[in-house]
């Protein structure tokens, strides 16, 4: 994907104002998507109480969004290239706003799950256009400043999202309980839709690739066949058909690989560019990204349930407890990119994995030692250690993965990186029924609920520690010192770019 924007003369003052308005609009949309993820995590126990949602529903409220978002990311980027980024962005933000309304007015848990899946699909149309619009609107010498602004938005979303979600839930505006966490998107989305039509300039890729709809269907089907039995298996008593369906998912993924090979040979526009996996650093990086997503998917959901259901804390207390973690991620991410990785290379990412594992071990020890009487300030140490470890990983990981990828494949590679991270996240959320709920009885007397959740939380954290150790080992296949992308590959041109698509993983 290329753009002639960098060769254009300096814009007239009127055009200059328009592009900065356009930037504000797309940044607001990105922030809306960012905050929506964190808000939902904080409000999950309130949704469970108010709607009578089962644990399976709770998993799908989060995993359904991640799955739809992952499955649609590359397709959303391609649609923008083909039909115009402005047009697809407006469709995405309009659909996201509508889906938010449906979530806010959901009459039962099933409607909420369906609306969340629609919301994830609309985010997959909206988010990939954001930095594509920036790339087409701003010349090369200004993009560094603009991407710095996006980094600030990511940090702001990481810190403010949980607190905003907690406040909206605690305030119980108009007696609506948790519903304002979705309804707050309506005025923002409507304003973005109106102003976006006026100020965003349309752009398309000069030679856009065709859509690989069969690839999208196979990826989505395979993930559903894997996730649905994992999510429902425990409450259904692990029926035989569940294992058969999960085994069938492997057949679907094998069919995907075979189809993508034929698709690449036929017209050169596969959903997954399989030749990328011949690059050792890319293949290892994709494995790291997927496994990292699994670990984060497990941690953030069980952490929320542990604090609010197990310990009985309010949404606001839980949200404020997470602030040290978010700040630590943001600070460490900035240091890793600017100071540490240029000097120490791959060792920084490996140190991040071990640091995060150490934080998890400290958390397990504290949860055991203090039990139900643990305080927020006592959680600060493990959360800061985990946040530092995560910050050391998330910021430089994409550059490390892409450093040996040729320029002509940078678009496909970047889209695939963000897609597999979201898929890993969805898989981790699906595994929660095994690693968390699988350790407790379905019908616990009131006094036993808290201790059972504490034990289940510790069990889940053991899995997260194992995941971080696996990531440390996988990182040995990354380049020792990530160089500039081969032949100058640019993630800024691609539909699935850091740092925005990293936002969900920063905050759960």
From TrEMBL:
One of its GO terms (biological process) is response to antibiotic. It holds the Pfam family MFS_1. It is a multi-pass membrane protein. GO terms for molecular function: transmembrane transporter activity. Residues 22-482 form the Major facilitator superfamily (MFS) profile domain. Its main location: membrane. The keyword Ribosomal protein does not apply. InterPro entries: EmrB-like, MFS, MFS_dom, MFS_trans_sf. Keywords: Antibiotic resistance, Cell membrane, Membrane, Transmembrane, Transmembrane helix, Transport. NCBIfam families: efflux_EmrB. This is MFS transporter.
């Amino acid at each position: 994907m290329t753009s002639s924007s960098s060769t254009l003369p300096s814009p007239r003052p009127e055009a200059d104002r328009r592009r900065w308005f356009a930037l504000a609009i797309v940044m607001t949309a990105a922030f809306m998507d960012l905050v929506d993820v964190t808000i939902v995590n904080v409000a999950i126990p309130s949704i469970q109480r108010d709607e009578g949602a089962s644990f399976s529903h709770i998993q799908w409220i989060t995993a359904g969004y991640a799955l739809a978002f992952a499955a649609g990311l590359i397709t959303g980027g391609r649609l923008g290239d083909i039909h115009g980024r402005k047009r697809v962005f407006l469709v995405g933000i309009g659909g996201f706003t509508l889906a938010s309304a449906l979530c806010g007015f959901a009459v039962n848990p099933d409607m909420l799950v369906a609306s969340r899946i629609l919301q994830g699909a609309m985010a997959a149309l909206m988010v990939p256009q954001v930095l594509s619009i920036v790339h087409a609107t701003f010349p090369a010498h200004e993009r560094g400043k603009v991407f710095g602004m996006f980094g600030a938005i990511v940090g702001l979303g990481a810190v403010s999202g949980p607190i905003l979600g907690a406040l909206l839930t605690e305030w119980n505006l108009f007696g609506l309980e948790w519903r304002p966490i979705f309804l707050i998107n309506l005025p923002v989305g409507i304003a973005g839709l109106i102003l976006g039509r006026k100020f965003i300039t349309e752009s398309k890729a000069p030679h856009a690739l065709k859509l690989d709809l069969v690839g999208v269907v196979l990826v989505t089907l395979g993930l559903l066949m894997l996730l649905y039995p994992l999510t429902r298996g425990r409450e259904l008593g692990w029926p035989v058909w569940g294992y058969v369906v999960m085994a069938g998912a492997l057949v679907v993924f094998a069919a995907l690989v075979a189809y993508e090979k034929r698709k690449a040979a036929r017209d050169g526009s596969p959903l997954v560019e399989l030749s990328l996996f011949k690059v050792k650093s890319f293949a290892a990086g994709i494995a790291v990204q997927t496994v990292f997503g699994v670990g984060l998917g497990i941690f953030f959901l069980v952490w929320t349930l542990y604090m609010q259901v197990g310990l009985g804390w309010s949404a606001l207390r839980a949200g404020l407890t997470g602030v040290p973690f978010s700040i630590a991620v943001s600070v460490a991410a900035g240091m890793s990119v600017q100071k540490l990785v240029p000097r120490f290379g791959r060792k920084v990412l490996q140190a991040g994995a071990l640091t995060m594992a150490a934080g998890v071990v400290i958390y397990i020890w504290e949860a055991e030692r203090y039990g139900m009487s643990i305080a927020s300030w006592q959680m600060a140490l493990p959360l800061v250690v985990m946040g530092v470890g995560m910050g050391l990983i998330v910021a430089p990981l994409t550059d490390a993965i892409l450093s040996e990828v040729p320029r002509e494949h940078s678009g496909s590679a970047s889209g695939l990186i963000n897609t597999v991270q979201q898929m890993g996240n969805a898989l981790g959320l699906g595994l929660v029924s095994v690693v968390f709920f699988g350790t407790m009885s379905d019908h616990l007397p009131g006094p036993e609920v808290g201790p059972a959740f504490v034990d289940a939380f510790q069990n889940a954290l053991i899995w997260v520690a194992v995941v971080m150790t696996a990531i440390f080992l996988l990182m040995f296949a990354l380049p020792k010192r990530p160089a500039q992308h081969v032949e100058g590959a640019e993630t800024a041109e691609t539909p699935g770019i850091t740092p925005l698509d990293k936002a969900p993983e920063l905050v759960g």
